[in-house]
Please model this.
Amino acid sequence: MNFGHFDDANKEYVITTPDTPLPWINYLGSQDFFSLISNTCGGYSFYKDAKLLRITRYRYNNIPVDSNGKYYYIKDGDSIWNPGAMPTRTSLDAYECRHGLGYSRFHGEKNGLAADLLAFVPVDTPCEINKLTLKNNSDAAKEISLFSYVEFCLWNAVDDMTNYQRNLSTGEVEIIGSTIYHKTEYRERRNHYSFFTVNAPVDGFDTSRDDFLGLGRGNNNPIAVEEGKSRNSVASGWYPIASQQINVTLAPGEEKEFVFLLGYCENPKDDKWEAPNVIKKDPAKKIMEKFAASQQVDAAFAQLNAYWDELLSRYHVESQDPHVNRMANIWNQYQCMVTFNMSRSASYYESGTGRGMGFRDSCQDLLGFVHLIPERARERILDIAATQFEDGSAYHQYQPLTKQGNLDIGSGFNDDPLWLIAAVAAYLKETGDYAILDEMVAFDCHMEKAATLFEHLRRSFEYSRTHLGPHKLPLIGRADWNDCLNLNCFSNEPGESFQTTGPSEGPVAESVFIAGMYVKYGNEFAEICRRVGKEKEAEIAQKAVDEMYQAVLDAGWDGEWFLRAYDAASQKVGSHECEEGQIFIEPQGFCIIAGIGVKEGLAKKALDSVKERLDTKYGIMLHQPAYTRYYLNLGEISSYPPGYKENAGIFCHNNPWISIAETVIGRGNRAFEIYKKTCPSYIENISEIHRTEPYVYSQMIAGRDAARHGEAKNSWLTGTAAWTFVNLSQAILGVQPTYDGLSIDPCIPEGFGDFTLTRRFRGATYYFDVKNPNNVVKGVAYLEVDGKQVKGNVVPVEDGKKEYHVTVHMA
Ligand code: BGC
Ligand code: IFM
Model:
């Protein structure tokens, strides 16, 4: 069942009912100012950091769900409604929400009055613009009252929902004309404030939530709106809001536009001010002047669209499969940008107060983003690397605003260091910018301990090389990619599942998955060493990698598939000998991506086992059989009910690993079958089962053991976006950035047909024309580059050349 449809020409998803299975959201903002916005106008805004600088308030666990946002009430006679249906939920004569790239549009109609709302964050100004157009489509004049409504958050989102004894006395606002300034915290010299304004004279305002709503009422039926009369309330403590009332007369056919702005402002850091609660309004004034007229807003909107057109022109495919085109050209790349910006911080499933930027997460997000804005990827790599410790391990998470590592979580996830190599290798291949390796980067967030980025990579590899267990496989530490595989558990006390010291075994659990990473990214490290002339170091690294390869063959193969791990007592995890959890997806994917077992004939066996034991119609599960009880030696993984999350859920993130692994052994049909199973566009028509947004990936789909098999959760912020883009663009369609240039080696399903692909790379544009007359799934006979035949798969780079026309002859 569908709740809308794709509009590819406009790069939008069109939602045709407010009653979607879950809120279907979008992200506004590309750099510093961000908003989350749902298909019924719910959501919130923040500046840089969803925890520390939360501008508007959102309530989790709310009823109704998703019932706070930027709302516009229209009082037309006795009927009161909102263009996005919430929060009044008055039934509308027409409703539509269009989520586009960095903007959302809403169309609501009631009793001959049409309201069109366009919400976006301009590319270069820290504010959200809401342009509201009211049009009288009836043949009688209308006198209506329009009320806006946003609820301010008192900045730190955690304090905001906990520290009421203080919060309820700190709220301060200032009202000047049509502008409401929110200046809580300004007094204590935090130097920031926000404002909400409209480009028209107002007939009233409210800044006290209780006065506007009326005690005992919700935002679904504010007393001020019901009575058509703002209270002109001035908030002092309690709950500051911004609401303006504008009375509008519309002749038949007449249309009026209003521009509402939510802005964020800061004073220069060294600014001294004598009267600390008198805010400096210049920054706000500048923003207001910039968007005072509709034409200015339209120009800013055109600029946003141009921004996205330019970004997406960097990778564009035209195949015969509309799902592939739509995902590759629009939604998958868009989600890559969102995950790059948000990491795992702020979504409708991530509260914005917890996870911040993940070390492994952001490194992986970068893999799908680096081609879009390499300069920002560069900056991010340096930020991430600065949270690494001197011994090569790393803070698992850091706070986006302060860029400080999260002490509560700390370190100990032994896959983390290797992901840094993955990110840097991807950046180097994309840009050829080896100078990044010489950048001085802090350790432990302290510049006094800085070293070059190359040194950081060296420590990453050294950490992995020197943390091996009894089987010469990497020690897992607290967990690897699978956060919940806590194999060094010794305590039965709730909340104490991990201890670094325990009984005699010690924390010796080992991970075959990290071994796969070690081979893959150890090879990359060795290659980087070679590229920068460190031959000796490359040799040493290569030797260690080769030994690891052998260690996996010796101790990481279970007979029909790769083992997952050894626990702290050296018992096998993910073996046919286990009672439950006999086979896991992760090592099958990553060992084969690393090339382990390919020439030995193990890869095919492992992938066949995946198909036989882990596959479902909704995607491939993490492991089977699911754990039916809690296992002390496995930890959190067994805490979930069977089929959910890490306990045998379908993690979309590692489905592409298996798909890529299939392309490694040349099975294009199977690779694509796997791609399709979790691909949002392909499963749009089961939205009533899947439930999350059909235009983006979710982290997890309930596995076969779950009552709600096929139901997705945790949409948007998942490494799935990056890995699926890597899979589709590099493994299936086959265009890979390499140190020496672009290579092309598609692995496609039978019947996929010819396709063309445009790829911008290091300042040049490559036009690929892939011909497959014999319908093979893999194999390139030769390339023709600007008419000249070229052997191999890499397009030779010529100095200063701006365009490459490459015909790829598959055979
Ligand atoms: C998992 C969660 C788990 C958490 C533990 C996450 O990555 O997805 O299910 O509770 O790690 O920190
Ligand atoms: O790998 C993790 C990721 O860092 C956060 N989400 C869940 C994944 C699997 O545990």
